[in-house]
Design a protein that fits this description.
The complex is a heterodimer of chains A (293) and B (269). With 293 residues, chain A is α/β, with parallel strands linked by helices. Chain A is built from ten helices and 14 strands. Classes of the chains: A alpha/beta (293), B mainly alpha (269).
Amino acid sequence: MANAIEIIDLKKRFGSVRAVDGVTFEAEQGESFGFLGPNGAGKTTTIRCLMDFIRPTSGRINVFGKDAQKDSVEIKKLIGYLPGNVKLYGNWNGWDHIRFIENIRGKSKNVDNLIQSLDFNPKIKFHSLSSGNKQKLGLILTLMNEPKLLVMDEPTVGLDPLLQNTIYGLLNDLKKKGTTIFVSSHNLPEVEKICDRVGIIKMGKMIEVETLKELGKKRMHKIELRLNDKFTANDFKFDGVTSIEEIPSGLLMTVEGDLNPIIQKISKFEIADIEISHANLEEIFLKFYEKDK
Amino acid sequence: MLGIIWRSIKDKKLSLIIYSVASVGFLEMYIALFPSLQKQSQQLSELMKSYPDSFFKAFNIDPNQLSFTEIGSYLGMEQFNFIWPVMAIAFAIGFANYSLAGEIEKGTAEILLSQPISRLKIFLSKYIVGLGFLATFTFVSVFAIIPLANVHGASVDISKIAFFALVSFLFVWAVYGIAFLASSFFSEKGKAAFAVSGVLVLMYVLNIIGGLKESLNDLRYLSFFNYFQPANVIDKGQTDSLTFFVFIGVAVIASLLATLWFNKRDIAV
């Protein structure tokens, strides 16, 4: 079975600017793949290449085994695309947009359900809708023809938490039905809620592709330590301890890799209190970004 | 493709109606004035003869065609020499910009491009509607001469009017081709409109300069306004065959280039 998305050594330059510089990854069918990175990392450019809005300088993109550029029309029958800030026709209402898409893609079977579950009024003109309702309409248009692959570029940007949760709920339902979801975001909690696997992009290069579980298992711990003995921060400075912050009668440390050396060191002191926890995804993500600084 | 065609017609039909009504309104105004001008044609011709040659060249008027006795040449000189071309050019540029650069500028190109329809079909859907609208606008504007002239007691030669409608349509098609090329090239309506307006103003200036100095006469061949001579066409019912060659050639080449460019370009909303 072909991968839903297969991107091989994708490069895209705008003049002298390398927006995407050799990105390679794949997303399996039925998988939820998060594409993480800060603004300007190359997420949107990659998605635009995938959607054939812009043409790669070099590299290959396959969607369900077909070339994203040559077989663009065939592929788009299977894709639902939702950009971050949905831009539609100001003078059309929701129905106008829905009928327009139906004229191209065929009659939708679930548009009424979507309207109902998102509590959307399709009689209002697009320019009069709030940003949340605009995004709802975008989501309806994206999902109404039950795509096999859902491509979303920062889909919840600027939305209130209530609507964000509605969208997460819809996406989780789609996951259960086997829809492949490809979502770009710089919002880690969002990716944690939706995705099975993430790719992290930095300055146009893919620096990590891992499952969320593996990423979470990265040997990175936070230690909050309180001691009865006298101590200094320097007592705990050695390889693996990436940060030390002094707190009243104690220290906050971030430790990478093997915990044994630091535990042995701590055991030489009289401990008042200790808490060791896994670093969250946000901190792991930041670690990737700080590596080369 | 039909979905896009239908929506474009629905979205822009009001513009077509407004432009057509305005054009017919101007026509009615000029035709209504014609009988009284016809009565004073002798004095008006004398007055016009006193104008310097450069005045006629600046306004693309052939002084030998100046006549207030024939409604055809009168309308060719008044309505179709300036007001109608300005309206037709504005309509052509407006529609071309709405079709491509406008979609990119507003961000609505994303919804079109994310659908299972090729760029070529998107382009053609928009292009065909615009061309149909321009043909409608031209034929309404020109053929309205016949009933309006009848109402005001003037007679016109229908075959000459039909021929003039054809030449007018070819003129506006050539402008539309260039406008579509600019619209496919730029991502902002303003820049596209500026580029086409610049080209047309340059053509207008070249036509004037070419007429003012014998040694620069060949520059006129670079201008659409050298080939579009409404008073001459309505009066004689014929035009230089080069007119067809230039208008059709420019329209076809510019439209093909626009298609190729739109198909090839990056569309980053």
